[in-house]
Amino acid sequence: MSNAAPTHRQALPRKWNDRSVFNVPEAAEIFGTTPWAIYEAIKRGELRVVRIGRLIKIPRPVVEEMLAG
Length: 69
Description:
Layout: E1 21-22, H1 24-31, H2 35-43, E2 50-52, E3 55-59, H3 60-68
Antiparallel strand pairs: 1-3, 2-3
């Protein structure tokens, strides 16, 4: 048995293991909410994102941080 502390990466379901960024619908699925709620969180500054033109990406560390609470 390992004494290593669990990593934040374990918070995400296995299907997301190879992803470093997420789009809004994916983030909504991860957080169990709607895309509208994600857009509102972005608008209020509660969710840090990367914008490339109209494209919105949520970095994995931001998602993991929020899931860790």
